[in-house]
Each structure stands twice: as C-alpha cells, then as structure tokens.
Amino acid sequence: MFQFIVGLTEEERKTCDATIDKPKGGSQKVRRARILLDVDVDGTSQTDRLIADADRSRTQTVGNVRRRCLLEGFQQALKGKQRIRLPCRISSTATRRRS
C-alpha cells in the first residue's frame, strides 16, 4: 500500500495547535488536527495504527486525512469533506395541510 508522506509548514502546525487549544467547528475538526500533527514528517511521524490508537479512531481515517492533505490541500483535510445538501422536497399533501 502506498504511504502518503505529509510535511506541514510552520503556519499549518500553528493552525492545528490553535484548533486543538481552542476548539471551533466540532470534535471531528479537532481530531483531524491531531492526526495532521501526528502524521507530520518533521513531527513524530508515527505509523497509522499508533496514531489511530492514540486518537481513538480507525487506521482508515488516518490514511484518509493523509491522502486528503496531499491531494486536496491542508484546509480541506482540516475541515473535512463538504457534504452536498439537497433542497427539501415538499409533497403536495404537506402544502394542503398548511392552507
């Protein structure tokens, strides 16, 4: 299996530290920030299994964050995949009840 090697800049490390210190955006964002700091080449650079055990996540999650950081960029890896929200469908019976 191909291993994605992540190297963070000093600014990206500071962003991860700030996200962990003052969490904004939910627990998933904090978890991704911890994973990014752990997979950094200049940092501890542990195996995916050790990182997953430390962060109580799956090895696949660690691999996905690594891959997303390299292929889609740091911000996308930190924020996560944006979901597409479909507009609500109102049935004809629901509109009749309102009237």
Textual characterization of the structure:
The protein has 99 residues and is mainly α. The protein is 61% helix and 0% strand. The chain has helices spanning 10-21, 27-39, 48-55, 59-72, 74-79, 92-98. Helix 1 (10-21) runs antiparallel to helix 2 and helix 2 (27-39) crosses helix 4 (59-72). The longest helix has 14 residues, at 59-72. The chain is elongated and about 60 Å long. The mean pLDDT is 82.
Q: Count every beta strand, where a strand is a DSSP E run of 2 or more residues.
A: 0
Indicate the overall shape. elongated
Relative strand content: under 5%
What is the first-to-last residue Cα distance?
60 Å
Instruction: State the order of secondary-structure elements, H for helix, E for strand.
Output: HHHHHH
Mean pLDDT metric: 82
Q: The biggest beta sheet, please?
A: none
**Low-confidence segments:** none
Secondary structure tally, helices: 6
Counting helices, strands and paired strands, the structural category is: mainly alpha
Gyration radius, rounded: 18 Å
What's the short version?
With 99 residues, the protein is mostly helical. It has helices at 10-21, 27-39, 48-55, 59-72, 74-79, 92-98. The mean pLDDT is 82.
